[in-house]
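So, can you check these tokens?
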Amino acid sequence: MPYATLTLEVADAVGVVTLNRPDEMNAFNGQMAQDLFEVAMRCDTDPDIRAVLVTGAGKMFSAGGDLKEFMAQGDKVPAFVTRMATVLHAAIARLNRMDAPVVMAINGTAAGGGFSFALSGDYAIASEKAKFVSAYTASGLSPDASSTYFIAKHVGLMRAKELVLTNRVLDAREALEWGIVNRVVAPDQLMETAMGMARQFAAGPTKAYGQAKQLLHTAFSESMETQLEFESQGIASMMRTGDARAGLDAFLHKRKPEFSGE
């Protein structure tokens, strides 16, 4: 189906999602929140999509929330933002909780909600031209779109406070050093590199990726004993999958496994 504010293309079991409001710096408005939710549902439920790649059209990844649309709501802006954030957050949660890994290809500046969204991926590759800034408190706002869940996990609490309270801008190399992205590449190599990573994930054991993601989500919140129980349940459930059987058989016969995602 067509989307008003983004595009979805599926090839080689990879769903490529492109934020597509370049004239508005790919800012999140109400329609983009809804489109992203619909795309997240498609990516989560379509068995032909075994990895997702997210990027932005034009020079920016995303400038965050569309402040012009917010201000146009007048006195109704709190209710508008509540509805929009609820939909956007559902989209981000769906992308983060699904089995298929999500690769963020950050082509330019990621600010505000764009910064938050970039943090929510499973693997992040940045162009050398990319910049990262929380930006919320500069406009008298507090963060949304998952950054308070992810940023301290990525960089530690004190650095997280620095980014959120001072709105320090990180360039791509600093973002790599701080643990916000996995790789930095030349701008003309970004999509090729990101697609290569996404295709690698798409050829892998999709359900095992999903189980591993869920275990890592609770790594900071559960006791050791609870986490060990989650691991026991997880690996036992994976033993029922076709990919586990294929992987174990390939290991025993010293050959490369072929995974189907089942």
